[in-house]
Amino acid sequence: MVESSESVMVIVVTPTYKRYTRVPDMIRMANTLAHVKNLYWIVIEDGNKTSQAVKDILDGTGLQYTYMAYPTAKGFPKKGWYQRTMALRFIRSNTEQIVGPSKNGVVYFGDDDNSYDIRLFTDYIMNVKKLGIWAVGYCGGSPVEAPNVTDGKVPSFNVQWSPKRVFAVDMAGFAVNLKVVLNSDAEFGTFCKRGTGAPETCLLEDMGLDRTDIEPFGWEGKEGQRKIYAWHTKTQPPYIKGKLETFGYQVEIE
Ligand code: UGA
Ligand code: MN
Fold this sequence. Notes:
Site (Interaction with galactose moiety of substrate glycoprotein): 145
CATH class: Alpha Beta
Number of strands: 12
Order of helices and strands: EHEHEHHEEHEEEEEHHEE
Bound molecules: uridine-5'-diphosphate-glucuronic acid, manganese (II) ion
GO cellular component, one term: Golgi membrane
Family: Belongs to the glycosyltransferase 43 family.
Helix content: 10-25%
Strand order of the largest sheet: 3-2-1-4-10-6-11
Radius of gyration: 18 Å
Membrane topology: Single-pass type II membrane protein
Keywords: Glycoprotein, Golgi apparatus, Manganese, Membrane, Metal-binding, Signal-anchor, Transferase, Transmembrane, Transmembrane helix
């Protein structure tokens, strides 16, 4: 039987933490994700408690979601690593609640500050059978980081920063099929030496993957016209001075 991609659940894992730009960042991301059918959003607050403002945004999407709070444990970088680990544990112990009995799903680690094209989810992520990889804009000190595709395979990566990593890819540049996640107990640890500090290659290698498993997306387009669907952006904090008066509006104060 051919499975239609309609029955594939896109599982997006997003660590988040309180800061001035978080609510607008999450609004932009929520507005994008709300367009995607079959999407389950796992949002993990780096803090002791969840935020009402974030919960209201999630409720507004109409998506299925789980929003939980886990402050970064001792020894972990304050960069969402621990929160993603808690999400992996949640996925493994609540698989059926998330995807139903089919177990068809793809896991994507989408940070709250990036910019995403809807087609990232509908054209790329939904179709990942094992490990999908694509270009990310404004990443690692480059205009774009991308897999180097030769004869449909990925023998190396077109990146400037730390190119020797087995998987020289940003978190926004890959997704793994749920089966890969369920067949391993890989988590984000407290450090990743092989990633020269970045966690991606450690996670993927610990999942038992190698470069021959890569399914590259988005590289076939014409020279100069290949599309980027994930951008590693960062929102500039606002300039706020004086009294932190909010006049009854829901504004998170740092
Ligand atoms: C870059 C990569 O794009 C990340 O995917 C990677 O995890 C990170 O580097 C890393 O070095 O480990 P960058 O843009 O520098 O990320 O970091 P942020 O976007 O500030 O943080 C990544 C995620 O963790 C975000 O979703 C953010 O909300 C969350 N975060 C950040 C927390 O939950 N707590 C924090 O204290 C900081
Ligand atoms: Mn970021």
